[in-house]
């Protein structure tokens, strides 16, 4: 990820929504929202995004919505002692001032339920992220293959820590 | 509703106990106060009766004679299950023809929502050699108990179907006689996993 500082610097100069698939909402830099393509008939899907808070005040991701899903929830996931544990985070996810928070495979994810149809690889899917301070932000998710790990999502700059 | 909650709690407690036992054995250490003795061979595996993705009944006998790679999950799983099945598909491709001489099985612990039809549709996205087994609650409890797999339902809302499932994310490697060989850990390096599968394919 040695190019990341350059990419970050370059992307910060762009107006929102930037062409390199990132978005600026006030002091929040929203990088590479993406979803996994779902297997045919899959009832649920997962989405991911990286959020950088360049401001001096904490913000909070309160909720998410997408026309592809009847419901979308924020979940945490961890594997401890070989056991996968997942739980909803109804109070949202804190985006502290000056910090980067990644919703990525193996960590937080957006859970899409009651899908209206399969999430298809290569498609662009609308997503609304609602923040406590930055308000509602409309973005588009890229769609990676089913089961794609973060590195296969197509945009390296999504791996920022 | 009440008996159901009691059943869930009881099931959860049982699964937790089973997992603790399994974990103790898998790690190879043991806690004397629990009276668990290590024998050198973990008692993971055993008889089961389930239904495959075509609706046909299957038992442990069907897997004998070839090494097996078994993963427990569910189709509503947004992260670990598709990731694992995707990795498994990649490893099968790297194994080449050897993968043809092994059993690849995805067992759903979601006895309420997953049936043969759901499994058949879901598995279309992965290597076609991966089979999908489902069963009744009793059948799933039996195989998870035999394989020392932990699973518990976690409510996510008020609705009847609003739940997710915490479960053992390791992949079980079994030899052609149904004996436990080892596991592939979640997040383990792909080359390490491939080496383990090569050894399994070679007969141990």
From TrEMBL, chain A:
Keywords: Signal. This is Copper chaperone PCu(A)C. It comes from Chelativorans intermedius. It holds the Pfam family PCuAC. PANTHER family: BLR7088 PROTEIN (PTHR36302), COPPER CHAPERONE PCU(A)C (PTHR36302:SF1). Residues 1-20 form the signal peptide.
Automatic annotation (TrEMBL), chain B:
Transmembrane segments: none annotated. The keyword Chaperone does not apply. It holds the Pfam family SCO1-SenC. Keywords: Copper. The keyword Disulfide bond does not apply. Signal peptide: none annotated. Residues 39-202 form the Thioredoxin domain. Belongs to the SCO1/2 family. This is SCO family protein. It comes from Chelativorans intermedius.
